[in-house]
């Protein structure tokens, strides 16, 4: 695949094909279906949906965009599928001091998912699967618990629909594992995992039963880019040889403990420090403050971005070490003292 | 852009933005629109359509696939927009012996387009534009006349909608000009032209009034691939230095006159020879015959493909010269004699 968006679009196709194959009991589509689909008409063109989450980002092509709910500017004026949206947990930090509320939040969100799946089936617009990020990255670095992700998988298994984990931002090492979902102790592997960005090209891997029945159902001109695979091969070898996942875990520890120290030191400015590996974030008290902090960080020689409404997001490369993490925390402290 | 599909998807977005800007009289979307679009709901998510043609191919992501009508296997079981489809002309060959029928065919197709545009507006699913290939390539090398393409542009201007010419297959030189639509003597440039394949990456160019009002409405992670642009730069320089468009025109003349000689020599096997530059095709009497011809050509050392139901399509690189065209015609003649 060429990018994250089309990786998700093709993952959706695998979901549709599996669902319709089940609906037909394994019998190939009949002539009426094959003919009507050429005109975008039923039965060849079915009504099916994919469930996604408020605050998620999955790309900008139409199917991926219908599953994206992070910023209006990505979606305004674009006609899209009438697909449903569920709530992704919003936790109180520090997690260890708010276990009861956060467990209740997981339950609330999982109940909502079940409710939507049932409503969609009743309304003849059934969900063929769920797409979810391990960490809602573009939407503001919202984390979900292992309990939440396990619960989602249980729901997918109960309803016999596909569990698609979008690792476009989280995949390839920034969390200290190749795939962020490895942290969730899922009872079974996700049905599909999509990736891009750090993986230098787009792609997906999936369970064998999602393989389409026919050639040319999934296809594109370049079917990937060999030159990107050669680069990726070197990246993967370097990650292993230089033990970059360990480096990332160590640097991540310094980052997160530094952010926690700073949110205690400046409680009116920062809160909700969170992260896995170097995939860390902390919220400012307001959007304006967040933007000021980012601007001032640049004058200190540190280029850092934002996500969601108020989050400062940290997204270093895999060669970011503890010494770099220390520089970052020192620079951020210097900036915070100016307020 | 990364590929032909997402070039078209982003062209569609430009069309939606322009249309909705006009609907609002230049006023930015209000809070209700900005909020509702996050949930895929009206008014922020409007109901809009793009008109395409039977036999057309524009890609495999959802918007592009809703405009694709060449083969069922591309579309079956994929939920799509309920967008309308018009007829693309189907001419009788040789063109010069069938002018009256072919002119009537143009008129029939153009009338149908007008009829659909009016119906779509009446049904509150207005068309924001028309997407069309200069030659329906994947669908069977169906050509449209300059008269047809001028008529389409007139209709777009009359209805104040966008005229998008998809040059993903035809662009980059195979017709002997950089863009196939240069042959149509359009009174004005197309509003948008999309390209990919021979251009090594994806992209579009468009009139200035289609520029979005806001940043981040059109965006992706890589916003193109610099390494592909470096390659493209060399390709473009080579096309100019080595006069490859002239080479292509000369080789194309030999190809087309050779195909015409062969269809006269083997009238029960071949018909409807057609082409611009080396972008040539000829139809076999049946699909089975076409496939046999292609298979036998391979045993003669010639790799050639098919498109549509019965077409043999010729798609050489720009370094294909008259001597290669002669080899091809000789090989094809040798194969035809075996039937």
User: Biggest interface and which pair forms it?
Assistant: A-B, 57 and 57 residues
Main CATH class of the largest domain in chain A = Alpha Beta
Strand content of chain A: 5-15%
Characterize the quaternary organization of these chains.
homodimer
Biggest beta sheet summary of chain A:
6 strands, mixed
Give the uncertain stretches of chain A in residue-range form.
none
Averaged pLDDT of chain A: 97
Sequence of secondary-structure elements of chain A: HHEHEHEEEHEEEHHEEHEEH
CATH H level, superfamily name of the largest domain in chain A: Type I PLP-dependent aspartate aminotransferase-like (Major domain)
How many DSSP-defined strands of chain A?
Answer: 12
CA-CA gap between termini of chain A: 46 Å
CATH architecture of the largest domain in chain A: 3-Layer(aba) Sandwich
Class by alpha and beta content of chain A: alpha/beta
Broad shape of chain A: globular
Q: What strand line-up does the widest sheet of chain A have?
A: 2-1-3-6-7-8
**Number of DSSP helices of chain A?**
9
């Amino acid at each position: 695949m060429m990018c994250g968006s089309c990786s998700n679009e093709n993952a959706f196709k695998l979901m549709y094909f599996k669902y319709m194959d089940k609906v037909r009991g394994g019998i190939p589509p009949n002539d009426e279906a094959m003919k009507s689909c050429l005109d975008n008409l039923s039965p060849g063109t079915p009504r099916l949906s994919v469930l996604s989450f408020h605050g998620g980002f999955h790309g900008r092509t139409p199917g991926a965009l219908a599953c994206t709910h992070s910023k209006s500017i990505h979606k305004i004026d674009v006609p899209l599928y009438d697909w449903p949206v569920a709530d992704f947990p919003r936790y109180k930090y520090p997690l260890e001091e708010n276990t009861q509320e956060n467990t209740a939040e997981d339950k609330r969100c999982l109940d909502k998912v079940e409710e939507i799946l049932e409503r969609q089936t009743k309304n003849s617009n059934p969900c063929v699967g769920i797409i979810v990020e391990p960490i809602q990255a573009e939407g503001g670095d919202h984390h979900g618990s292992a309990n939440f992700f396990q619960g989602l998988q249980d729901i997918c298994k109960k309803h016999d629909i596909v569990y698609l984990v979008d690792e476009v931002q989280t995949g390839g090492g920034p969390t200290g594992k190749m795939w962020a979902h490895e942290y969730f102790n899922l009872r079974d592997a996700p049905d599909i995992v999509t990736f891009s960005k750090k993986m230098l090209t787009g792609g997906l891997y999936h369970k064998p039963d999602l393989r389409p029945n026919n050639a040319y159902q999934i296809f594109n001109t370049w079917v990937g880019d060999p030159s990107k695979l050669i680069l990726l091969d070197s990246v993967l070898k370097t990650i292993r040889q230089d033990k970059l996942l360990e480096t990332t875990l160590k640097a991540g520890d310094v980052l997160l403990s530094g952010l926690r120290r700073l949110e205690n030191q400046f409680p009116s400015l920062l809160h909700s420090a969170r992260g896995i590996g170097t995939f860390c974030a902390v919220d400012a008290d307001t959007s304006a403050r967040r933007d000021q902090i980012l601007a001032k960080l640049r004058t200190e020689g540190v280029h850092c971005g934002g996500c969601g409404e108020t989050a400062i997001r940290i997204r270093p490369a895999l060669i970011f070490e503890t010494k770099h993490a220390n520089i970052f925390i020192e620079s951020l402290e210097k900036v915070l003292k100016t307020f």
